[in-house]
Amino acid sequence: MHADMSFLSLFIQASWLVKFVLILLLGMSVYSWTLIFSRTKNLKASQKALKIFEERFWSGHDLSRLYKESAARSEKITGGEKIFHGGFKEFSRLHRMPGRSVDSTTEGAHRIMRVTLSREIDELETGLPVLATIGSISPYIGLFGTVWGIMNSFIALGQVQQATLAMVAPGIAEALIATAMGLFAAIPAVMAYNRFSTQVGKLETAYINLMEEFTSILHRQSMTESD
Predict the structure, then answer these.
(1) Burial class of residue 79 in the structure, from the number of CB atoms within 10 Å of its CB (0-12 exposed, 13-18 middle, 19+ buried)
(2) Is residue 211 within 8 Å of 110, Cβ to Cβ?
(3) N or C: which end of the chain has fewer CB within 10 A?
(4) Residue of 32, 10, 13, 224 whose CA lies nearest to 127
(5) Residuewise pLDDT in 10s, the chain (227 residues)
(6) Is residue 78 classed as helix, strand or coil in its secondary structure?
(7) Model pTM greater than 0.85?
């Protein structure tokens, strides 16, 4: 009985539709874990990069020197440093143009930083909609497999004169495995999505604060030079 009720045995005996549901849910689970590991690594790297750049930014470094250091490795910078790089580059370009007012120069730099911020957040959110989708639909896919398996069990019972628990148990177990598999795929995906969304939100807030502070510094610097 133990061998007959094992997961592998129940999978082999399951109907083709339940097998398809189980394989689909297994594939979704594997893909979600791939995204979880990838996003965890990416977000940790982004948090570390932001911390390092903020220490340099607030340490009193000359902004022109800090920009040159960022420009020297512009292909590798991300997050806050990339926002700073884009803003300072646009500020320098507009500042050299004759007839530009302080406000228009600062606003131009701020606009470029907003665009860069949006792109950085989009990059951080890569894979999160997929995790949300897996977390929301996996239980329903598993429930569909369960309903189908129980339905087949009752149809089979209607074809015999005397029903016993031994006849019903394999079909019910097969059906419930689909629900369990759906939860197995959904729970980690939902937990990871909530955690990553919180981390992305914190990074976005930090980026916005850095962007606004840097804009204020540029504005004060422009006002000083124009006096």
Answers:
(1) buried
(2) yes
(3) C
(4) 32
(5) 444 556 666 667 667 887 888 899 999 999 999 999 999 999 999 999 999 999 988 887 788 888 898 888 888 899 999 999 999 999 888 878 776 777 888 899 999 999 999 999 999 999 999 999 999 999 999 998 888 877 777 776 666 666 565 666 666 777 788 888 999 999 999 999 999 999 999 999 999 999 999 999 888 877 776 55
(6) coil
(7) no
**Residue in this structure with the two tokens 């006849």, named with its chain if needed:** 167
Q: What's the gap between Cα 222 and its chain centre? A: 39
Helix (H) / strand (E) element for 114: namely: helix 102-124
Instruction: Report phi then psi at 74, rounded to 5.
Output: -60, -25
Place of tokens 């939100």: 201
Q: Are 85 and 57 in contact (CB under 8 A)?
A: no
